[in-house]
Amino acid sequence: MGWRLGRYVSEISTGQERLWPWGLVLALTGVPLGAFVAPYITLKPLHKGVDFVNGIPGSTLLAGIIGLLVGLIVASLLSIPLYTLDGWLGLVLPLLVIFTLGVTGMWLGMQRARDMQAVFPALEKAKPTNVAANPTRNGAILVDTSAIIDGRIADLSVTGFVEGILVVPRFVLDELRHIADSSDPLRRNRGRRGLEVLGRLRQSEKVSLEVLDVGVSQGNEVDSELVYLARSMKIPILTTDYNLNRVAELQGVQVLNVNDLANALKSIVLPGEELRLEIVQEGKEPGQGVAYLDDGTMVVVEGGRSYINSSHDVVVTRVLQTAAGRIIFAQSRNG
Predict the structure, then answer these.
(1) Got the DSSP string for 54-115?
(2) What gap in Å lies between CA 69 and CA 76, rounded to an integer?
(3) pLDDT digits (tens, 9 = 90+) for 60-73
């Protein structure tokens, strides 16, 4: 375009088409400008289109294609008499009919995606990218890095309480690999534990694990990409990250928090119930002692400081539920 524009400018300024100076200058200017603009009008739309198609279940995609073909065939038959019209009507009306019936056929086909799954049962494997409006326990679950490193998801999945397919995006695997390669020993151990948990899930016959080949878009963070992916696929996120939990809920994404599940499964005690506990340390307030139930629930014992490192009978006075978990307050039965 710079070359053509340069010839045009030269013809206007000198009356002749010359290479120098406008032809050469504008041609050299057009090369880097075109190289800069080209990805935004070619590669980036292509990648967006590929990601969009990858996010469509196989049954829905096949049903939409069949509906589109049927709509185009019907439109072609109906358009035959329209081609005989004079003027622009003979060109515009057939194209309008073809476009309308083609889109309508594709839409109707996508609405019958479930029937396509019944005809082709193998298409059920496309569930990791399920776009059902209401996620169910039999649907896919998007797994966050924090839930993998936490490790409890492996034990929970093996028991069979988590139904459906665990979907791990490729950018989550990349983040785990970066953590495992960290120079910080603590981060490195956490990353390696996460990779071991994934290996355990992959080897288990009771767990369906799928890796979704999706990367992080330029300029986006992993959490933002995870929320965007969950919204587009309309599936919940499994995580232990409190901040991700809040951000996802604000954007209308269902969140399955392992910590919430752990808190819900802790032992239930009522005020007035008697317990025998081993008091292991001092509390924050004078005279207090601290003990723990088998599930890790902390019990603050008033007057329990003198019984540290020994078992003692206590009476529950109240139970406090917080965002971090459940705290039980008790007092010595002798007090």
Answers:
(1) HTS-HHHHHHHHHHHHHHHHHHHHHHTGGGGS-TTHHHHHHHHHHHHHHHHHHHHHHHTHHH
(2) 11
(3) 778 888 888 988 89
Structure tokens at 94: 């057939």
The 3-state DSSP class for residue 302 equals: strand
Q: Contact at 8 Å (CB) between 106 and 200? A: no
CB 318 within 8 A of CB 271: yes
Q: What is the DSSP string of 32-47?
A: HHHHHHHHHHTHHHHH
Q: CA 295, 298, 299: angle at the middle one, nearest 5?
A: 120
The backbone torsions φ and ψ at residue 279, rounded to the nearest 5 degrees and listed phi first, read -85, 125
Angle at 213 between CA 124 and CA 119, to 5 degrees: 15
Higher pLDDT, 250 or 26: 250
pLDDT at 91: 80
d(CA 1, CA 171): 39
Asked if residue 325 lies in contact with residue 266, where contact means CB atoms within 8 angstroms, the answer is yes
